[in-house]
Amino acid sequence: QVQLVESGGGLVQPGGSLRLSCAASGLTFSNYAMSWYRQAPGKERELVATIPGDGSYIPINYAESVKGRFTISRDNAKNTLYLQMNSLKPEDTAVYFCKARLQFTNYWGKGTLVTVSS
Predict the structure, then answer these.
(1) Which pLDDT tens digit goes with each residue over 91-116?
(2) Hey, what's the torsion of the CAs at 62, 96, 35, 73, to 10 degrees?
């Protein structure tokens, strides 16, 4: 059974930093392209960043709104995906989800809440 479990969310002041983690199990993690999405209250879910799986030539990509502030990374030995978030803004407040994708198969985590507020 595939499981993706996000952690690391919480309350942070504007300008602060957080690192999110997504622990994966039940799949060959290194084969999957991994992404972070977020969904703010009353808004649609949006793609934040994607990092390719092994053997893929697709580059890491970011939403324009987070470029230069967020960094996606993965540790295949630990089956874990990360999102380092710096210079956080109130508009980054959202539930953050990780997704694993291989061809037409997608798996989602349940999300972790990030609140940016003073």
Answers:
(1) 999 999 999 999 899 999 999 999 99
(2) 70
